[in-house]
Specification:
- With 185 residues, this protein is α+β, with helices and mostly antiparallel strands.
- The chain is built from 2 helices and 9 strands; from the N terminus they run ααβββββββββ.
- 15% of the residues lie in helices and 30% in strands.
Length: 185
């Protein structure tokens, strides 16, 4: 009996990958040609609603969820800046004040900000504060809100910050900046 010599290892290193590549190429040939260039572009084109404040929910719909520490439904700010907010994360006593804060870490521009608080009874009260640079602008609720009740009712409060629509309004005035909230009880 004659034995055939085994092929050299270098042949296997070349032949095996070539066979795999050939099989993959053949499996892709034939049948459906796949999506056109236009179809591919539409698949990767940005969605018209992503990051667009115009498609966000109305401010009246926003509610703070203390379990997730977010506001739902989510909304995007179109006001330039890198916004940070603060609100108490622990429950506030009904005879205490809730310190609320907002700042723009990018120091985009000095501006007035309207702060709306939605109470557990679905009543809205608001106050205005001024931002300067990247400093925190803070308000105490209910003390700094003229129409707020004197004490806090038990429940969840939603806090909405918006750019003020002052006398020298620009295109960003009166628009949503951020949402936060706190709990009392």
């Amino acid at each position: 009996m004659s034995e055939f010599p085994a092929p050299p290892r270098s042949l296997w290193r070349v032949a095996l990958p070539a066979a795999v590549i050939g099989a993959l190429a053949l499996s892709g040939c034939g049948g459906d040609p796949g999506p056109s260039k236009e179809e591919l572009e539409s698949m990767v084109a940005p969605d018209d609603t992503s990051g667009n404040g115009a498609n966000d929910p109305e401010l009246a719909e926003l509610r703070f969820d203390p379990e997730t520490v977010t506001c739902e439904p989510s909304a995007n700010s179109t006001v330039p800046g890198a916004w940070q907010t603060s609100a108490p994360r622990k429950k506030v006593a009904d005879d205490a004040q809730a310190e609320l804060g907002v700042r723009d870490t990018e120091k985009t521009e000095d501006r007035d900000v309207v702060v709306q608080v939605l109470t557990p009874a679905e009543e809205r009260v608001e106050a205005e504060t001024a931002l300067s640079g990247d400093e925190w602008a803070t308000l105490a609720y209910p003390e700094d809100f003229p129409d707020a009740p004197g004490s806090l009712a038990e429940g969840t409060y939603t806090v909405i910050w918006s750019a003020s629509a002052g006398d020298d309004a620009d295109e960003d005035s009166g628009t949503f900046i951020s949402c936060d909230g706190f709990r009392v009880g």
